[in-house]
Amino acid sequence: MDVSRRGFLSGRWRTPAAAGPVTPLRPPWALAENDFLVACTQCRACIEKCPTGIIVAGDDGYPRLDFSRGECTFCRECVSHCADGALVHAESSLPWRIRAAISEDCLAQQNVVCRLCGDACTAKAIRFRPRLGGSALPEVKLPDCTGCGACVGVCPSLAITLKAD
Fold this sequence. Notes:
Elements: H1 5-10, H2 33-39, H3 45-49, E1 55-57, E2 63-65, H4 77-80, E3 98-102, H5 116-120, E4 126-131, E5 134-140, H6 150-154, E6 160-164
Antiparallel strand pairs: 1-2, 3-6, 4-5
């Protein structure tokens, strides 16, 4: 494995543990997975129009999200350029039902002070609970979490994932 010193020190050499087959995270306002796969023609318009570059082509060619590249701003560019109806925005609907989860790999669990995820969270959904004899532990306030992914890419220990709730 070829890893730069910076990559090693930041923990980027580590890969999250695999937990079996997982449905990839789709762009905001995507149809249910089976309906999405039927409707999506893999035209790549959503990938090309995403201003933050988080929509990428998966190994199967279908668009998926890569929050290591940035966050979703819910700008709706992907939806407005989806001609095949795989992404459908409705004012009354949420873009998705995914929320941040912080694993035991978090640096704060090892008494290392790190608040990068909290600093990146514009929704203020990540708060830090003080504890005696150690650094404050991050907690995700799920009702406030938008699932934007801003916290994912900044985590040096890859301890944050987004999961469907």
